[in-house]
C-alpha cells in the first residue's frame, strides 16, 4: 500500500467502561507504532489516535459506534492492530 491508502471501518465500543484513560493510553501507544494517520470519529468529534486527550474528549461509552479512519503506507496493519484492541475489549475482564 502507498501513502495515499485510506481505509475506514466502524467499530463498536464493547468494553463496559468505554474509552476511558487506560483504553485511551493503549490506543495511543498502539497508534504510535505506525506511520499512518489514525483517527476515530464519534459524530462530529474527531480524535487523533496518538493523543490520549483527543481520545478522552470523544466521550465514547459502551455500545457506541465509532468510525476508524487510517491513511498511509501501513494503513492495513494499523487498521488490524486497532481493530484487535477493540475486539479484545482492551483486555478488560468482564463478567
Overview features:
95 residues; alpha+beta; Histidine-containing Protein, Chain: A; four-stranded antiparallel β-sheet; globular
What is the topology?
Elements: E1 6-12, H1 21-31, E2 37-42, E3 45-48, H2 52-57, E4 65-71, H3 75-87
Antiparallel strand pairs: 1-4, 2-3, 2-4
Helix pairs in contact: 1-3
Write a concise synopsis of the structure shown.
Helix 1 packs antiparallel against helix 3 (75-87). The N and C termini lie far apart (40 Å).
Radius of gyration, in angstroms, nearest whole number: 12 Å
Poorly predicted tracts of residues: none
Shape: globular
CATH topology: Histidine-containing Protein, Chain: A
Q: In the residues, how many domains can be counted?
A: 1
Report the helical percentage: 25-40%
Task: Determine the mean pLDDT.
Answer: 94
Output the CATH class name. Answer: Alpha Beta
String of helices and strands: EHEEHEH
CATH superfamily: HPr-like
**Strand tally:** 4
Beta strand %:
25-35%
Strand order of the largest sheet: 1-4-2-3
Largest sheet: 4 strands, antiparallel
Q: State the end-to-end distance.
A: 40 Å
> How many alpha or pi helices?
3
CATH architecture: 2-Layer Sandwich
Q: What structural class do you assign from the helix and strand content?
A: alpha+beta
